[in-house]
Amino acid sequence: MSKPSVASEQSDSAPAPSPFSRLADFVAVPRLGGLALSDDGARLAVSVATLDADKKKWQSALWEIDPAGELPARRLTRSAPGESSPAWLPDGSLLFTSARPVPGTTEEGDPKLALWSLPAGGGEARLALTRPGGVAGFRIATGSGDVVVAAATMPGASDAEADDERRKQRKDAGVTAILHETYPVRFWDHDLGPAAPHLFWAGQLPADEPTGAAAEPPALRDLTPEARPPHGAGDDFALSPDGRLAARSEDVPDGPAGRRSRVVLTETATGETRVLVDDPLADVYAPRFSPDSASLVCVRERLSTYADCPDYTLLLVDLSGGAASELTPDFDRWPSAPQFSADGSAVYFLADDDGRHAIFRVPVTGGAPVRLTADGAYSDLQVARDGSALYALRSAYDSPPLPVRLDPEAPLQDPAQLSTPGTVGPLPGTLHDVEATAPDGTRVQSWLVLPDGASAESPAPLVLWIHGGPLMSWNSWSWRWCPWVLAARGYAVLLPNPALSQGFGLDFVQRGWGEWGGAPYADLMAAVDAAEQRPDIDASRTAAMGGSFGGYMANWVATQTDRFRAIVTHASLWDLDAFTGTTDAAYYWEKEWGDPLREPKRYEQNSPHRYADAIRTPMLVIHGDKDYRVPIGEALRLWYDLQKRGIPSKFLYFPDENHWVLTPGNTLVWYETVLNFLAEHVLEEEWQRPELL
After folding, report:
1. How far apart are CA 132 and CA 169, in angstroms?
2. Can you give 436-490 as a three-state secondary structure string?
3. Are residues 566 and 439 in the same domain?
């Protein structure tokens, strides 16, 4: 069997059977995010990303969707820089962030996000407010229409003029240095400091003048003047419906070099701030107010230790006295993204559950949470203020995120899909929910993607994809790790949820805690063994791949077995000691692994680099230089260890990408290199070097 090169796929003008058959078509599929429901429930907005004219970046625009599902979606914005983060004001105007040029200014350097407003009746968007460091986010008081924004601000420079002057002084002096006095210094893909996020009170945004002239932007008042690096006021905050209170998770020290979060409450009129929930044994975050602004719900995440993995619950907090009670004390799943029902009698939340990311409802008076959704993975949950419906983005491994309408109380729904851009058409295969049994008797759930035509007469080669995290699960659509791209080329793709995966209970996570090379590896191999028993799978042609923790597991697999013909490892951990000391949040990983000088056991037993001599399988190493979660040193060391041992290997290096590959051109090259590497070693075809490499 032969296959065309990816380059010829991209240039071929013949119609493709699906967008997954040609990479250029795949990266051009619209991608949805950021759903927002208006106060009257009559309008939905969503951000839709598409390729720009040069095909060098994804460009987002705002679209309106009919909540009733009767009218087609229509586009609202069209600027070249794009728009995102939509939210509706009570008067029906739509706020969003955009890096559009600010009228009357000449910006230098990278464009900054500002807050813009689109009138309720349509027309041209106007600038609502801006800051020298850009607007990182905003919240609207649903009752009063007041607005609070988050913006990075230089130390001691709350007002815009002082902030701008301090930035200018550093630039004119040629200074880029940052002096750190507390840990950490980086986060994911960016440096922390010298500016740090502050929250600013904007109040009610002024309306345009009757003459049509744009109103003057409001004067901003700093609600967090004491915010300092590394994380400042953060980006996790909420505004009460009446606008009187702002709640946020505040980052505080936890030991000499550790961090944890607590929830604080600020009176917006005075700036007076008090600690609301502070638990020395937990992170507390994701605060959301009740409709009457009298109570608050938030997530409590028990800090992990050397012995125990984390655990999550919801807290219900009375704002008058600060009393907090557990809302989900006996729920053996991990709740997230809580928010109140329209009448305040219940709380909706999301949680992984058996390979799905479901919506749950729990009464504020207590009781067992009720799962409202049967299949799929949900995000951007919106609650209609009249209590008539819920709206969300639903995805699954057989569907990208699409807007849906749900009943607010019915269990195990299959919700109605609304009209929208971003559908992908027929898939090049079928999706199956499969199971295996681990050596200790534990059930292991997986998703199996079978390509069209796979059968006992024509079995498909198998690719094992291992998820990252590790505390997550395969449950939703992924543009970065899309199995249908492989299925379009004849591969079956197995996506298992091994030990450490969430959504299967606390004991399932604990099985792999501190022993990544133990139960997680055994579960993966059990899932592969079960898949290979199928007559439509070719057990003689297999490969394994993964990113982040999945990359760690790919490396571990390479040191433990030679059953696979090829291994692809992306943004992977290789030397656990080196990783733990150089990642952006070392204190988090040391809780599980221990201090390598005092407790070296887990490092010695679970670090793949210690078993490098056992590797026999060809490997493709992929890493971005801007990856601060798993620093580039991990890939450099792995690459050298492979090369000096003569292991057939390649290193795909991205100087300007981070933990993910985010630009269209590099995404094409990523998939092209992976596909050609698999074709060489799994299908025994001649290696084709990507033309642009």
Report:
1. 13
2. EECCCCCEEEEEEEEECCCCCCCCEEEEEEECCCCCCCCCCCCCCCCHHHHHCCC
3. no
Same domain flag for 561 and 576: yes
Token pair for 408: 């607010």
Distances in whole angstroms, Cα of residue 449 to Cα of each of 1, 414, 498, 550: 20, 21, 17, 18
CA neighbor of 589 nearest in space, from 257, 191, 337: 257
d(CA 247, CA 551): 37
| Identity of residue 454 | A
Planar angle of CA 690, 692, 693, nearest 5 degrees: 65
Cα of 649 vs its chain's centroid, Å: 30
Helix axes 519-532 and 549-560, enclosed angle (nearest 10) = 70
Check which CATH number belongs to the domain holding 525 and give it.
3.40.50.1820
Q: Is residue 617 part of a domain?
A: yes
Residue 667, phi then psi, degrees to nearest 5 = -65, -45
Handedness of CA 662, 127, 156, 244 (dihedral sign): negative
Q: Convert the pLDDT of each residue in 176-209 to its tens digit.
A: 999 999 999 999 999 999 999 999 999 999 876 5
Say yes or no: 98 and 202 in one domain: yes
pLDDT higher than threshold 90 for residue 10: no
- pLDDT > 90 in the chain, percent: 91
Give dist(CA 302, CA 252) in Å, integer. Answer: 15
Residue 593 structural domain: 548-662
> What is the C-alpha separation between 656 and 129, in angstroms, rounded?
31
Distance CA 247, CA 235 (A): 11
SS3 of residue 48 by DSSP: strand
Token duo for residue 555: 């490396």
Tell whether 199 and 93 lie within a shared domain.
yes
- Cα 127 from Cα 130, distance rounded (Å): 8
Phi/psi of residue 582, nearest 5 degrees: -120, -10
Domain boundary, last residue among 222, 240, 271: 222
Same domain, 530 and 559: no
Say how many domains are in the chain: 3
The model's pTM is 0.95
**Buried b / exposed e across 212-223, counting CB within 10 Å, b at 16+?**
eeeeebbebbbb
Indicate whether 389 belongs to any domain: no
Phi/psi at 438 (5° precision): -70, 165
Can you say how many angstroms the Cα of residue 456 is from the centroid of all Cα atoms in its chain?
38
Pick left, alpha or beta for residue 422 (phi over 0 → left; psi -120 to 50 → alpha; otherwise beta): left
pLDDT over 60 (residue 508): yes
**676 to each of 448, 479, 584, 680, how far by Cα in Å?**
22, 19, 33, 6
- HSE-up of 327 (CA within 13 Å, CB side)? 33
